[in-house]
Design goal:
Elements (H helix, E strand, L loop, with lengths): L3 E5 L4 H12 L3 E8 L5 H15 L2 E6 L1 H4 L31 H16 L3 E3 L15 H14 L5 E3 L7 H11 L21 H12 L11
Parallel strand pairs: 1-2, 1-4, 2-3, 4-5
Length: 220
């Protein structure tokens, strides 16, 4: 019997690569796709569905829009404009959604416990650490402990790329033949990736460092 893993699948480059990684290890993957009111939510959810269907894995769409409605973040529809520039720019901290991964992980852990899955996974990685506190290695270790104890030693939290930057993820993804043309990275509320937000800039750089062309189109 295959080991069951519950994955938070956003439709982005990172979580899609985690999915491919888990499948390459012969895991039985169950994907959760979260609606939480972000500006790009519609487009990333469509991407997540396409990626899940590409790999023929089970997925559930969880609507948390009401939960996040009062949260302060420019990433949300209720917030200000998405800042442009590199992730190292101070302005990109405006895209932090308070406690997002804590909430996501709690739901993933509960479902994993319910179906007898031994692990839950997210695509958090080294490149996110400077801006997003819920993507840092310290957070990962603490949440792994909390989830393991909170599920009576049933469920572990794994983050295969916690020590890897975006370029490293793309490098492995290329070897795994991840369908990056199906993924969505841009933070803006428009069909075509803007090419200027921090998320787009980081994605572009990751492909450039691997000397390979990105397979999606950009507005700029």
């Amino acid at each position: 019997m295959k080991e069951k893993v519950v994955l938070g699948l956003s439709g982005g480059l990172d979580s899609s690569t985690v999915l491919a990684h888990l499948i390459s290890q012969s895991k039985d993957v169950y994907c959760f796709i979260f609606l939480y009111g972000s500006k790009h939510n519609f487009y990333e959810n469509q991407a997540a569905i396409k990626v899940a269907e590409y790999y023929d894995v089970s997925y559930k769409i969880i609507d948390l829009s009401d939960t996040f409605a009062g949260f302060k973040s420019n990433l949300l529809k209720t917030g200000g404009d998405i800042p442009e520039g590199h992730y190292t720019d101070e302005s990109m901290s405006q895209t932090v959604v308070p406690g997002r991964n804590i909430i996501f992980l709690s739901i993933l852990a509960g479902y994993a416990w319910t179906i007898g899955a031994s692990k839950i996974a997210l695509g958090i990685h080294q490149g996110d650490h400077a801006i997003y506190s819920d993507c840092r290695k310290e957070f990962y270790k603490a949440m792994d402990t909390a989830i393991y104890l909170g599920t009576d030693n049933r469920v572990e939290f794994i983050a295969p790329y916690i020590e890897t930057d975006k370029a490293g993820i793309v490098k492995e993804g290329i070897s795994l033949q991840v369908p990056y043309h199906l993924t969505r990275t841009c933070y803006t509320d428009q069909p075509l990736a803007c090419g200027k937000c921090g998320s787009c800039v980081e994605r572009k750089e990751a492909f450039e460092k691997n000397n390979i062309s990105d397979s999606i189109l950009y507005k700029f």
